[in-house]
Amino acid sequence: xxxxLRAAMFGAFLSFGGTAVAAGDAxxxxxxxxxxxxxxxxxLAGQAVPNFVRSHSTPSRVTGQLTRWRTPVCPxxxxxxxxxxxxVTARIRAIAAAVGAPHDDSPKCKxxxxxxxxxxxxxxxxxxxxxxxxxxxxxxxxxxxxxxVFNHPIQGWYVTSTRxxxxxxxxxxxxxxxxxxxxxxxxxxQPSGDxxxxxxxxxxxxxxxxxxxADRNKITGMTIGSISDYIAVLTLTQARMSEGxxxxxxxxDLMSPGCPGDKSPDQVTAGDLAYLGALYSADLETPVAIExxxxxxxxxxxxxxxx
Length: 307
What we know:
Elements: E1 14-16, E2 19-21, H1 41-44, H2 48-56, E3 67-69, E4 75-78, H3 82-99, E5 113-118, H4 121-131, H5 144-147, E6 154-164, E7 169-171, E8 179-180, E9 184-185, E10 203-215, H6 216-219, H7 224-236, H8 270-279, H9 288-306
Parallel strand pairs: 3-10, 4-5, 5-10
Antiparallel strand pairs: 1-2, 6-7, 6-10, 8-9
Helix pairs in contact: 2-9, 3-7, 8-9
């Protein structure tokens, strides 16, 4: 994937953790993932966990099921100071390791997560749509005008694929004719599942690559630790930014205009880690309602142990 990016330096300061550093300062902090505080009984009450799962899981447009990485995540960041770019990628790998998501720690791995810190994010997304349309994932030509609208400080686009019980896998593409494998044509460009089961689809949805774009104008003043955690969760699952403060806190509350800074988390939360751990251990060959229910059950068991 070829991307043209003018990587001008920040005019303002960012910070590692809570300590401000100027662009060019040496030293990358430790990226070990420590256990966040467990949620309170009030944070877990009622529909908190089901609501959390729904907000953190965007079903595939092809299968209607939840998606996750099957191939190892290899992030590459550009647009900040080199140390900060490296911190972002190291933090994504560390969180992936903590939740059991596949990741590649080799410095020579082939990047499949592109993270761009830019001053004109919508222009950058439109440029990618024009030159590398497939890199932004499943969309119809009629959606081109709205697909790259940038209305959050940090946004993600995902290329996904569908894999069936026979191991046949095809990138989700509305324009695909569906030729796959030994010249075999699959219905609607999608590998077929096993229609004999009502509980298992024998299909799964994978994330193949991701593009994360951050608006540098809107993240100035935030810590690089908070930004990295936000991007890590956005990379590992197609989570949505909260509209307010979530009952069960999430790092996705960080940039919510309805969640004041003194109430929003500044690092990945117990809810985020529990959800991701459940996502990457769940059976994702079932209907989405069953997938979400199983993830909710795993999260509740995990929290009950910590009480």
